[in-house]
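Reproducibility note. Readers wishing to regenerate the assembly model reported in the main text can use the exact inputs given here. Chain order matters: entities are listed in the order in which they were concatenated for prediction.
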Amino acid sequence: MERLQAELAAIMRDDWGRLLAVLIANLRDFQLAEDCLSDAFTSALEHWPRGRPGNPQGWLLQVARRKAIDRIRRAKTRAKLQPDLAYLMALDAEGVEATHAIPDERLRLIFTACHPALDPKTCIALTLRTLCGLSTLEIARAFLDKEATMAQRLARARAKIAKAGIPYAVPEPQAWEERLASVLTVIYLIFNEGYSASAGEAPIRHSLCDEATRLARAVDSLCPGDPEATGLLALLLLNHARSPARLDAAGAAIPLEDQDRSRWDQDRVREGLSRIETALRRGRPGPFQLQAAISAIHVEAVDFESTHWDEIALIYDRLLELTPNPVVALNRAVALSFAQGPAVGLTSLPGGLDDYQSFHAARADMLRRLDRAAEARLAYDRALALTGNDADRLLLTKRRDGLDAS
Amino acid sequence: MKYLALIYDAEDQGPTPGTPEFEAYMARWIAADKAFKDAGVLVGGEALEPSSTATRVRVRGGKTETMDGPFAETKEQLGGYYVFECENLDEAIKYAAMIPVDESGTLEVRPIMDLSHVG
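Running the prediction on these inputs yields the following structure tokens for the assembly.
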């Protein structure tokens, strides 16, 4: 039973978005599709112990569609908006699809979830929920929000898509530009969720990073010549390249200065560097290209000490002009702390991030480097209280406890 | 689906009737009307007299109360509407964007509730 639960959890993590995208295409109803897919997973727990299907994903889709047929039949009042029952039954009659035959509808899903008629935060939340299968709680944490607030936001979004008639489609070329910016942001945040998961034991959810990279690649190929689409792909590749070196054997996060650079994924480094060069040659730098340029400086440095921190700080200046927000200002302060010393970093820290773990962790590190142990300890404690994953908790604890030794 | 496009704009805008500017202004609205008809999406649409002609009416305890004026003292007032029959929101937005309202104006696009299956 435990093995089965683990297997189902893995399918949910890896295939939720793909299965849901197909179901929404079939049902034309976000809420109904999500409810039925959840039902199908529950059914699996009940049925699989008696015989696990040969094709789990196809089985889940078929069961979800049958749940939908049942629900539609029961809810007679839906008359006009209801999905086409005859169509669903015809699909059902075709039997279980082979996994490779399940079409990839995720691009339609991401463009619908990122429709400008929804506010940007809702777009991001909805994409994380629908494409990546993150729970409402995980999304709420990523946004420093309450779970109930986030649940309400998601429910309103699904209702608006249905009631306002937001189409389930990749937009026409003339609407592409407007829609692309929010799609790229969503993919970036999905990657971040995978790169430093907000909660739980798996601090780096590779499937989310892979998912985001795949989506970025798809958008880049559908939008050739757009430097930001290429810039995003480069950024994700260069950051993902460092994944193999980011955790020690005990599962603690390894900070950049202690990472074994020989473990960085050289294929991703090479592709990322070539992509960012291509993007920057187009002469229209944007936020994603600038961040990729920063990552490129990191991967090109032989070691932490020889990193061109002054260059990185300059790029952050430019980035802050384009996207003035406290998290960028925090990263700029960290770069300054290495370019010009921790005292400069400390005075450059922005306000307004009191509930943000990384702010307190960065501040604690700067205080530690200034030998202000007592203040550093308080800052580490504050960061630890805000930490949702074990890798960060282990690293922060190690650093805090290291204060005693010095 | 039916969509209502509400047109909000400042009321002191627009040229004086009788001037050539007014003729050109009206020609834009007539052209838009024709485009909506030709596309087969026009269900209806009207322009409204200024909000200074509006009357508020409410019934409290069976008694009708009548008051002068619009509710909100905002610069932008409801000045007219169109009803479109469209496939989806993207199409409704496309036609709403063709309404020749001034650049100071705002359009609100709302789906009209489908009650055909009720009762």
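We highlight two features of this model. Chain A touches chain B at residues 77-81, 115, 117, 163-167, 169, 171-172, 175 (CB under 8 Å). Residues 2-27 of chain A form the longest helix (26 residues).
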